[in-house]
Amino acid sequence: MIRKLKALFSSEPFASIFVLGIFSAMAYLPLIYELGYSHDDWYLMYAGQVRGTSVFFDIFSGDRPLRALVMIPSYWAFGSNPLYYNLSTYFFRLLSGIGFLWALRLFWPKERSATLLMAILFLIYPGFLSQPNGIDYQAHLVSLASATFSIALTLKAILTEKKSARIIFFALSIFLGWFYLGLMEYYLGIEALRLLLILALSLREKGSFSSKMMTAIRRGAAFLLISVPFIIWRFFIFESERGATDMGKQLTGFLSDPFAQSLVWISHLYEDSVAVLFGAWITPFSQLYQRDFKLLSGTKMFLIFLVVTAIIYQLYYFLKQKKKPSKEGTSWQIEALWIGFFSMVICQLPIILVNRQVSFPTYSRYTLPGSLGAVMVLVALLYTFREKYIRLILFSMLITIAILTHKANTKKFVTETESMNEFWWQVSWRIPHLGERTTLVVNYPRVATEEDYFIWGPANQIYYPNGTNERVVQPGVYAVVLNDESVEKIIAKERQEFGYRRGIETYANYRNILILTQPTSGSCVQIIDGFQPEYSKWEIERIKQVGAFSEVEHILPDANFHTPPEIVFGLEPAHNWCYIYQKATLARQIGDWNAVALFDRQASQNAFVPQDAVEWLPFVQAAAMLGDAERVQEIALFLKNEPYILEQACDSLRGMEITPEMRTLAEDSYCIEE
């Protein structure tokens, strides 16, 4: 037994898988424990919490029904914990690399170094930037792993002589093919890689060209059982409720002007192909480098480059000992170039035809199918350098770039998680409870609000975790994304809008809003009171345009406080300045000026001061109301270089019922003469 284990661990397949594990761990596992909910995770997890696993049938029935078969067991096993989902996506990402390596080794059994490098570059491909979004992208990576193993099983079925084994491999390949396409329809282009590999295998055989082509057609036709039934079902039977996944809806532009639309598609296909092959190694890295210079410092790059080079060098030496003499010469490179190129280009077609394009980082997921062919082309091109040390340096550079890109990308997600969690912890300190059917308008400091559930998702996790309707998922509070259209609707006081998306009902009401804003990451969360708006000097213009419509009456100060669930929002932050500010503004709302003054003294005792000067205003007002002239003058000194805040302080103090003496002092201290 010991000898068998020793032989296994010293075998080349085990060593190759071990190396895949090392590089993928370096790329994906750092900081994985600090990742939280992101993007579509918010509505998925809220819906699961309200209705249980059955809700995922409703959520995915309109575009990708098979996703429910992934999400249901995932939610059953992992619940609301984002860590387990991210570990799971890492596992399936690693599986996809192993499946791809298996397929490559079946196709080029003697080119162990080249095939392993292809698998490594595919596994840590830096063009895909949604890996840390583990909940929503669970199905994407399960699908990718299924696709690579399906292709490997196809090659195994062709190369196996035993009929019974061939039937089993064939059946498994077909099943996994249907499964991965059912999860992600835009992966359809991967079927081109399958057919190109079958064609290349047939062209290697002896005989005339016509006989080889007949063999290829016969073999390929068998595996059309994957793509053809799927295409018939997807485009002629299934009715997609989502325009982005409905080919018929997307083709209307082509039918209206075929020539012009064809030119657009050709242009986009060229741009996407360049992005998948080369841009993935340049654009994301440069974007993240500008964002986080320290994380991608030259010293760290050099150290990781040395580690990667040492591993690749040892791997090369190990594989050299195991390698059998090859008579293929450069034929494998020629095959890799044409198979990889055509596969990469065809993989972009289903994406282009629905009028989507690769864009970093927003639509980086569209690089995944084409990355299979892209890495084959890259490795073949780099093998044109005959000096192994040049190849070693070039491959080490690519791997280093990929690892650093993923580390910086994960850090970006972690930073957004921390910012989001702190935002809602502050809201929970300030707002004991929110009135039902309140519509929130939110300005986050680090997270772009792309959808309304980026707001109502976390809000309802805190205030309405069980929903408000037994029939459907209906949150207790709603939200609108702050853009030019919503600004116009708020100003026009338009009525509520019914929204139904993926089994979730919402009723956003533009007459019923409450504005929460955090102008910068150094600011505290600020609640805008429409009767007396207070704006940071860093506040965005759209908030100022609608600030007068914000109604603090939706805050229920006498209700019990709701504590954010730790599994979603992490540990409660330290009670520093922002905690005191939130408690003071709540006390101000109910007119308890003594409590505001008490919080002011606590801040002074702990040497807490704001980074955003507008946060001094509750304490100025309390001091003025209580006749504390010394404190009024002291705070005025802090604001002497803040004319925008002084003006607001002046206006608010003039509107308060304070003594004549205090009014004179306030005007002398805060009202700037024109």
- What percentage of amino acids are in beta strands? under 5%
* Distance from first to last alpha carbon: 91 Å
Helical content band? 55-70%
Could you say which structural class the secondary elements and strand pairing correspond to? mainly alpha
What characteristic shape results from the CA principal axes?
elongated
Mean pLDDT, as a whole number? Answer: 88
Low-pLDDT ranges: 4-9
For the secondary structure, the number of strands is 6
The biggest beta sheet is recorded as: 4 strands, mixed
As laid out across the biggest beta sheet, the strand order is: 2-1-5-6
Using only C-alpha atoms, the radius of gyration works out to 30 Å
Summary of the model, kept short:
The protein has 674 residues and is mainly alpha-helical.
How would you characterize the overall build of this protein?
With 674 residues, the chain is mainly alpha-helical. It has three domains: 14-412, no CATH class; 433-557, no CATH class; 574-674, Serine Threonine Protein Phosphatase 5, Tetratricopeptide repeat (Alpha Horseshoe). It is built from 29 helices and six strands. The chain has helices at 2-9, 12-28, 41-51, 55-60, 67-78, 82-107, 112-123, 138-159, 163-183, 190-204, 209-237, 247-250, 252-256, 258-277, 283-291, 298-322, 331-352, 368-382, 388-430, 453-463, 484-491, 541-546, 566-569, 577-589, 593-605, 617-625, 629-638, 643-654, 660-670, and strands at 439-443, 478-479, 497-501, 504-508, 513-517, 526-528. Strands 2-1-5-6 form a four-stranded mixed sheet, covered by helices on one side. The N and C termini lie far apart (91 Å). 46% of the residues are buried. Mean pLDDT is 88; it is low at 4-9.
